[in-house]
Amino acid sequence: MACQTLAANFKDNIEELALVRDNWTPEYAADMETRLKEAIGKYIGVDNMSGLKKATNALNIVINQAKKDVNFFYKQVNADFDAEPLRQRRDAILQTLGFNTYWKNVSNTGQTDMINLLQTYKQNLTDELKQEINSKGTTMALIERIPTYLEQLQAANNTQEQLKSTTPELTEEANSVLNSLYQEVIAMAKIAKAYYDSDPVKRNQFTIHYIIRNLH
Predict the structure, then answer these.
(1) Which residues make Cβ contacts (< 8 Å) with residue 191, sequence separation at least 6?
(2) Angle, nearest 10°, between helix axes 46-80 and 111-124?
(3) Can you tell me whether residue 198 is helix, strand or coil?
């Protein structure tokens, strides 16, 4: 999936990248994308890949929605309890709800820390704590919506893992073909990434670890 994304990004930027290397042409970019699609269809299965993509997209939608609400909640609590002598209480609230342990890692490690944060939040959010936070201005709708992401996230994650487990076992031929394509795509991405070194947005389009992180 990450290689398909890299190949698509390569094709989208080929007009500019064609100036970088003599063998980088629109025809080559289209051919790379086609060969990847055909290899995945032949050795992994188009239906399996399509289902996995849909499951991954659904998972990412839930994660992004949860991050948005959790971040807004976090910012409000920090602001509402910032003045002395409330800071000690703020720190206690954030510790109780799991922010001190998991929040910094959510953007880096994805769903695992988000699930842990949501579990801690849900387990420790008492009615009294809801009222205390709400009394400072954070809406009760937001406070109570955050725990609902836990079940959604777990369901989406389970669906994704089930689809991963049904991916066909690869033969020696399949491994050879797919590994060869992988090496070709990665070599292209390394050069394109170096070319876009001063452009963070474009550079991320050719950074395999960045793409993989955003697929999960």
Answers:
(1) 20, 21
(2) 50
(3) coil
Runs of H (alpha helix) within the chain = 2-12, 14-17, 26-43, 46-80, 87-96, 99-109, 111-124, 127-135, 140-145, 148-165, 172-195, 200-204, 208-215
Q: What is the mean pLDDT of each run of 10 residues along the chain (216 residues)?
A: 92 95 96 92 68 75 90 95 90 95 76 90 96 96 95 82 64 86 96 94 92 74
The closest alpha carbon to 172, from 43, 60, 79, 83, belongs to: 43
Is-contact 65 73, C-beta < 8 A? no
Residue 94 burial class via C-beta count within 10 angstroms: exposed 0-12, middle 13-18, buried 19 and up: middle
Q: Under 8 Å CB-to-CB from 19, ≥6 apart: which residues?
A: none
